[in-house]
């Protein structure tokens, strides 16, 4: 699938460019453009920070101005931390990446702009954007840095387009116990505990048995768990029989 | 609303503890617990990095062991980057924070554990968790650091519980143009362009007028935009009348 390009406008610290590359590649994005980086290009600090994501820097497009960097794009997002006095749609990162996936699906070319560390994007850059992205941070403390903002947008891209299952169970070399296995486990415990005199007094025995069966059935047990619980009980019996 | 506690297990670098505090507070979370930090506690590097979020460090609970730190919790999540060979439910950060909001809503006390920078949580810690959180990163490049993992979980907490509108328009001191204002704009342009001989040849005039009206109606214009477009046209007429 095509992907959006992330455009860093006048980034200052090489470390932050490298960290942005890592953040992108963590979520499978590898198309970066850079406009007028303060310390020139290439930048050794960026390379050192990017480590495993250095390819993004090698392949990054370098541009003199924002207009050039956006020239081939049909929809441009700009990330901003505050209102700018320009009438413009404002969306969450979630909605932005949902829109991006839809637009790319119908052949559009999308850019997401990120401003320089200290001051963010200038209004001249903002005016070039179709839509603003505003991360819904704590209004009392909004201190996202460049790479964190890139990270959240890249994360949302993958969340909108990836195939991550919201919920699964890691089964460590086993599978869920079947009903018959659970039944046999319940019987094993019930009969041994009966022998051991656990179901006492007698008028409560039926209720206790029911509760014990219910306990087993509430447990999401694997075959390995069931084997372990059989083993626990057998060992208690062996211990008792050894009489030590 | 109550919130989950984020528990840093044996964190190594003070800077990362400070960055984790900032990441939490960016999304309105301020209950941190710390288990056995490598460089002792308090940690000046953590304080320096936390800056505006230093209160979280002052108020953080310090514990000798994981069991103590989790003692009062009813549900524990553990963040992991890789499979651990322990049978356990695994969820995305999104699902984890949705579950957390539900559980807190019914009075449960939730913790989210984060492991040390280098190796992540040990299996002894993982075994104490009810549920694992796995960030769906690029399988070819999974290099999230501690503060980034905290950031994504905190972001998802706010996304699940906050009131951020997915989409809104920042209206800079104006409001949307009404239908009658759009109508008058269309008429103004149509009549002046008629005078100017724009709708030519005559057999195409009706179609051109329709297309022009349709163009206006596709534009999401504010009252300020409409005034500007009236002004543009008036100025062109004045310029023509000056005859220079």
Q: How would you characterize this protein structure?
A:
Two copies of one chain form a homodimer. Chain A has two domains: 5-161, 3-Layer(aba) Sandwich (Alpha/beta knot), CATH 3.40.1280.10; 179-243, no CATH class. In chain A, strand 1, helix 1 (14-26) and strand 2 form a beta-alpha-beta unit. The longest helix of chain A has 20 residues, at 223-242. Chain A has helices at residues 14-26, 44-50, 54-58, 66-70, 93-105, 123-126, 146-161, 179-195, 202-218, 223-242; strands at residues 5-9, 32-35, 61-63, 75-79, 88-91, 110-114, 131-133, 167-170. Chain A contains ten helices and eight strands. Chain A is of the alpha/beta class and 244 residues long. The mean pLDDT of chain A is 93. Chain A starts with a strand and ends with a helix. A seven-stranded parallel β-sheet of chain A has the order 3-2-1-6-4-7-5. In chain A, helix 1 runs parallel beside helix 7 and helix 5 packs across helix 7 (146-161). Chains A and B meet through helix 1, strand 5, helix 7 and strand 8 of A and helix 1, strand 5, helix 7 and strand 8 of B. Strand 8 of chain A pairs antiparallel with strand 5 (88-91) of chain B, so a sheet runs across the interface.
Percent of residues of chain A in beta strands? 5-15%
Give the termini distance of chain A in whole angstroms. Answer: 68 Å
Q: Mean pLDDT of chain A, rounded to whole units?
A: 93
Overall structural class of chain A, as computed from helix and strand content, comes to alpha/beta
Q: How many discrete structural domains of chain A?
A: 2
By CATH, the topology of the largest domain in chain A is Alpha/beta knot
Largest interface in this structure:
A-B, 51 and 51 residues
Proportion in helices of chain A: 40-55%
The topology string of helices and strands of chain A comes to: EHEHHEHEEHEHEHEHHH
Residue windows where pLDDT falls under 50 for at least 5 positions of chain A:
none
Q: Oligomerization state of this entry?
A: homodimer
Rg of chain A, please? 30 Å
Strand tally of chain A, please?
8
Q: Give the number of helices of chain A.
A: 10
């Amino acid at each position: 699938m095509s992907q959006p390009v992330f455009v860093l406008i006048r980034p200052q610290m090489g470390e932050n460019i490298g960290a942005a590359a890592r953040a992108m590649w963590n979520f499978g994005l590898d198309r970066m453009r850079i406009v007028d980086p303060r310390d020139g290009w290439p930048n050794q600090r960026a390379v050192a920070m990017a480590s495993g994501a250095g390819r993004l820097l090698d392949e990054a497009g370098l541009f003199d101005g924002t207009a050039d960097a956006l020239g081939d794009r049909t929809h441009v997002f700009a990330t901003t931390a505050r209102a700018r006095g320009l009438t413009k749609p404002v969306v969450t990162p979630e909605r932005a990446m949902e829109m991006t996936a839809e637009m790319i699906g119908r052949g559009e070319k999308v850019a997401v702009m990120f401003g320089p560390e200290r001051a963010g994007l200038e209004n001249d850059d903002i005016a070039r954007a179709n839509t603003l992205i505003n991360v819904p941070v704590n209004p009392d403390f909004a201190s996202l840095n460049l790479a964190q903002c890139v990270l959240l947008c890249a994360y949302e891209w993958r969340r909108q387009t990836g195939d991550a299952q919201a919920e699964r169970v890691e089964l460590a070399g086993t599978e869920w116990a079947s009903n018959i296995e659970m039944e046999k486990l319940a019987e094993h415990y019930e009969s041994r505990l009966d022998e051991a005199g656990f179901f006492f007094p007698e008028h409560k025995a039926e209720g206790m048995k029911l509760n014990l069966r219910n306990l087993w059935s509430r447990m999401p047990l694997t075959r390995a768990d069931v084997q372990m619980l059989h083993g626990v009980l057998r060992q208690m019996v062996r211990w008792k029989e050894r009489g030590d």
